[in-house]
Amino acid sequence: MVGVKSVPSPAISADERSHEVDHPSSLVAHFGADEPLPLDCGIDLSPFQIAYQTYGELNADRSNAILICHALTGDQHVFNVHPVTGKSGWWDTLVGPGRPLDPQRYFIICANVIGGCMGSTGPASINPATGKVWGLDFPVITIPDMVRAQAMLIDRLGIDTLFAVVGGSMGGMQVLQWTAAYPGRVFSALAIACSTRHSAQNIAFHELGRQAVMADPDWHNGGYADQGIHPHRGLAVARMAAHITYLSDAALHRKFGRRMQDRELPTFSFDADFQVESYLRYQGSSFVERFDANSYLYLTRAMDYFDIAADHGGVLAKAFAGIQTRFCVVSFTSDWLFPTSESRALVHALNASSARVSFAEIETDRGHDAFLLDVPEFFDISRAFLQSAGKARGLTSKDG
Amino acid sequence: MSVQEVLPLNGLASEQSGQFRADHLLVAEMVKPGSKVLDVGCGEGDLLQLLETRGIDGRGIELSREGVNRCVAKGLAVVQGDADTDLVNYPDDAFDYVILSQTLQATRQPKVVLENLLRIGRRAIVSFPNFGFWKMRLQLLIGGHMPRTENLPAAWYDTANIHFCTIKDFVELCDAIGVKMERAEALDLYGRPLRLRLPWWVWNLFGEQGVFLLTRGLGK
């Protein structure tokens, strides 16, 4: 008989996770009936809340604020211990004292996106109209919706112009949307491993993930919360597939090769014989502990819909016409999810718009994930870009 | 062809001459302060840095990844790109000056590149090694082999430089595509400008490199 070990069920209970959904341990901005969020789908979301974290202090003239936009499955916990996983912040390679995004010098803000599940209103939140979890009744959201909500938070914090908006992947899409929607409010923009539109291949991968979630019998047409369960198997498969796209063949080979896991001979079963298999299973199961399945559907959909040029008559350069923001675009050689060619198209459009843009492709075999990893060349460029922008902005500091 | 009076290198050049290349100092001197400049093939950004000290808004294109990364690390606005293929993406009149410093000989289509320079910029500044330089001629004439110099050290089979020309050739190209020369300079082996009143054949023989400030002519 062929033995198959099932993916372990999540260690955190649905109750614990739902507590972070509506009552996050981070800061929360509440927006009442008088401040609705107009969504692209035509619905006004109200009331709603945004969970966020800040690091460092806002200076007297409010000119040192940096907004970090997180990627698909990230959240506001950039530089602190995560309340659910207990792990350190997701970008503590880039953010921290002495690092390119230094809280001793900048006021750093990171908010959980609308549609997320770590304290900002999303499909896992309680719908105040029914007292039940939103589920699929939650309206479909877009990247511009996320950015519109962030702008309301930035208003609430009393900040007119952000010194920088920084993000990778889906976060990079938000960076670009910020500059297109609020050009006067963004002094500099660091867009990493992203694109102005989601490619057909990427939409295809997202569809695969969503179908995995929806094929899970525990999904219950999105109504699993009412049953007190979570479609963790489908979500884990979605995460496994996505995770492969974040890496590169070279990186997988370097890390695992064809090595076996805790054995020398194959078991002639569908157990995780190979290290790469058990690694993926681990990635899948640890992900479901902290993430909501419906939220995954909504956020992948938001990325799929993203196309800045489409909102400007199909001409990308028009999105950035006359823009004063200083741009730095970074791509990675082995990133096949957001390849360099897409960054280059963005750079051409920015050049055509006469924007001040830098563009660097970083040589690495670590794939799309490189933006989250310790890649010194990437840090050097980020630091140099922010420092020169800081000089232009008149930010003074001890180390110039 | 009209060639302007040669202006003496200004104070900036003498103060910083140790720090910057002679042809860069000459180029920087040709650019009006406060203008917007695109440096095509900007290398590690030395010229852009020099221009920034003069309050010039500089951008760069550089083919090599290492070059780009060093530029960005210096805080310069530089993108990775290829002069032969990427200039078409730049709109007309996007810059006051477009500079092609010691890069013309490495382009696949020098004529097309030159035309693009003067479409994107109202003015272009082009500098290139002069293959009519006496040392080059001697190497071919006496040595019987393709010339190699300090600035162009690679052998013929592994050089990125594929389209060499002489000052005379370049002047003829400018005439052919109706480009006006606002200013022309030839620098000797030590980076010193040759005297203006000398006849063209002297420049072509004794200029180690040519530096030209071009504007759009009536076209042909």
UniProtKB/TrEMBL annotation, chain A:
Binding residue positions for substrate: 239, 369
Subcellular location: Cytoplasm
Region of interest (Disordered), residue spans: 1-20
Alphabetically ordered keywords of this record: Acyltransferase, Amino-acid biosynthesis, Cytoplasm, Methionine biosynthesis, Transferase
One BP term from GO: homoserine metabolic process
Reaction equations catalysed: L-homoserine + acetyl-CoA = O-acetyl-L-homoserine + CoA
Boundaries of every AB hydrolase-1 domain copy: 64-373
EC number(s) recorded for this UniProt protein: 2.3.1.31
Function description: Transfers an acetyl group from acetyl-CoA to L-homoserine, forming acetyl-L-homoserine.
Subunit relationships: Homodimer.
Protein name: Homoserine O-acetyltransferase
Species of the source: Bradyrhizobium commune
Chain's gene name: metXA
TrEMBL record, chain B:
Domain of life: Bacteria
Pfam families noted in UniProt: MetW (PF07021)
Annotated source species: Bradyrhizobium commune
Protein name, entry field: Methionine biosynthesis protein MetW
Annotated Gene3D superfamilies: Vaccinia Virus protein VP39
InterPro entries in the record: Methionine_synth_MetW, SAM-dependent_MTases_sf
